Amino acid sequence: MPATQLSHLQLLQRLQGLLQEQSPVAEFLKQKNASLKHQLDWFKQQLFDEKSEKRLINYPNQLALGEILQGVGSVQPPEMDTITCECKKKHRSDDCVTGKFYCGPAAG
């Protein structure tokens, strides 16, 4: 065999050996890619798809907000007691500056 044919044959064998070495790596990367695509689809579904919380569930005994508030306006507020007192300014020197007031019992 001529030297060029031998070198081509050696080159071909070397390339086949490299291809065999890289086949498991390529298969692993394909599996990893499929797994990551599956995870991405799951995350997209969690973020952007219809959520279970948004589903309308019919509870026949549950009142609507408007039904709860129908009787609220008709309730009368309770009567208030009136308390009176006289306020006079304290005559202590430290309170004169700050303007504090004293509310004592009502003058009778």
SSE class: mainly alpha
Strand proportion: 5-15%
- The tally of helices reads 3
Oligomer description = single chain
- According to DSSP, the number of beta strands is 2
Strand order within the widest beta sheet: 1-2
Low-confidence stretches: none
- What share of the residues lie within helices? 40-55%
Q: Could you tell me the mean pLDDT?
A: 76
Question: SSE order, as H and E?
Answer: HHEHE
General description of the model:
This protein has 108 residues and is mostly helical. The chain is 53% helix and 6% strand. It is built from three helices and two strands. The protein has a two-stranded antiparallel ribbon. The longest helix is centred in the first third of the chain and has 46 residues. The protein is elongated and about 125 Å long. The termini are far apart.
Protein traits:
single chain, 108 residues, mainly alpha, two-stranded antiparallel ribbon, 2 strands, elongated
What is the structure about, briefly put?
The chain has 108 residues and is mainly alpha-helical. The chain has 3 helices and 2 strands; from the N terminus they run H-H-E-H-E.
Write the layout of secondary structure elements.
Elements: H1 3-48, H2 65-69, E1 87-89, H3 93-98, E2 101-103
Antiparallel strand pairs: 1-2
